[in-house]
């Protein structure tokens, strides 16, 4: 009888886990990343939604660093909250770059609620790996979501304020560099008007390289 109860408990736990959103995609990310990860080297993780997942030449841009891209497309901050071990902590990184919030706003989540999720994420990461540098990448502007720009700006303001209150947490603005004064640089995007082309990632690289290349005590 005890064996049956234990079996049912394990079965239901596994079943519940597999029913989580992005379960299969996260498993595929783990399999891909683990093939290239050298646990004897310092590791930097980039994670978040499709703007990270589609950054295919990320490692090539930083050839002297070990960069793991664990982005999973379509994700929101609440999805990352479910997989912080699998996508970040399992690789014992000294730095993690997080891009979430873009899809949250598009899904009509309020900036205040998104920040609440970020607080949970940051508290967990800092509890499990004290001293790890955490870089929050601002939400980016885009052609397809330009009508939501005020909400994105509110979110970015709150993210910047949150980062300023915590040790080892930094905020990087990628919104401003993608504008020409107040107008969006439309040549930074592929046909869907949401995701970036190489020109867009060139701009991201320009502002993020300082945080990638500097040692933790210089950030």
UniProtKB/TrEMBL annotation:
Keywords: Signal. It holds the Pfam family Lipase_GDSL_2. Residues 1-16 form the signal peptide. This is G-D-S-L family lipolytic protein. The keyword Nucleotidyltransferase does not apply. It comes from the Bacteria. GO terms for molecular function: phosphatidylcholine lysophospholipase activity. Residues 54-203 form the SGNH hydrolase-type esterase domain.
